[in-house]
Amino acid sequence: MNLSKITVSLLAGVALALFGCTQTKTTEAGTEQPATDTVTTVETIETAINTFITDSIAANYEPAELTIPCVHIVATDTTDTTDIRVWGNFYVFNYNIAGDTLKTVSGGSYPGLIHIRKTGANYAVTAFDRVEDGSNYLPSAKRIFGDKLDAFEKITSNDSLREEQRAAMIADHVKRNGLSVKLYQDYGWPAKPIPAK
C-alpha cells in the first residue's frame, strides 16, 4: 500500500486510542512498519484537539457542567511538525449531571481540517479550516478533504459507529474523572448505558 508519507486511516486516532489497534507508518519505500511512538503521538494530538474543542468551540454554547469532545479522525499527516494536519469530524457535546445520568444540553458537529504545531513536547492547535454550512457545504468539503472526501462521507453516514465511538469517549471521560454516572441521554431520547471501562 503506497500512501507516500501520509498515514491515512479511517478513524485512525480514535480507533487506535479506543480499540487498541496497531497503527503503521509508511516508509520512503512504501512498506509499512509498526510505529513505536505512534500511540503517544496520536494521544498527544488528540489531547490538543480536545483542548481546542473544549476551550474554543464549546465556549460558543451556553455553559454546562461538562464538555466531552468526540473526535472522528479521517486522516492525519504528521510529516511537518510545524503544521500537523488532522482531517475529521469534530463534535462537541455539553452535559449537565442529573443523578446518575449525563443529560445533553447542547452540541454540534464541526467537520474540517485542524492544524497543529509541535513545539518541543507540546502540541497546540494553530488553525481550523471548517466545512461551511448550507449550499457551501459540499464545495467546501471537497476543497478541505480532497481525495479523503469518500472516507469522510463514510464516517459521517455511519450513525451506529459514530454513536459507539461517542459512548466509548464518554466512558473514558467518566473513568478518567471519577464520575459516578451510569447513563447518558439526548433530549427527547431514552437514556443509554455508558459502557464499562
Descriptive report:
With 197 residues, the protein is of the alpha+beta class. The protein has a domain at 7-90 and 109-159. The chain has helices spanning 12-19, 38-57, 137-145, 149-157, 159-176; strands spanning 7-8, 24-26, 32-34, 66-77, 84-98, 101-119, 122-130, 183-185, 192-193. Helix 1 (12-19) packs across helix 2. Residues 1-36 have low confidence and may be disordered.
Task: Write the topology of this structure.
Elements: E1 7-8, H1 12-19, E2 24-26, E3 32-34, H2 38-57, E4 66-77, E5 84-98, E6 101-119, E7 122-130, H3 137-145, H4 149-157, H5 159-176, E8 183-185, E9 192-193
Parallel strand pairs: 6-8
Antiparallel strand pairs: 1-4, 2-3, 4-5, 5-6, 6-7, 8-9
Helix pairs in contact: 1-2
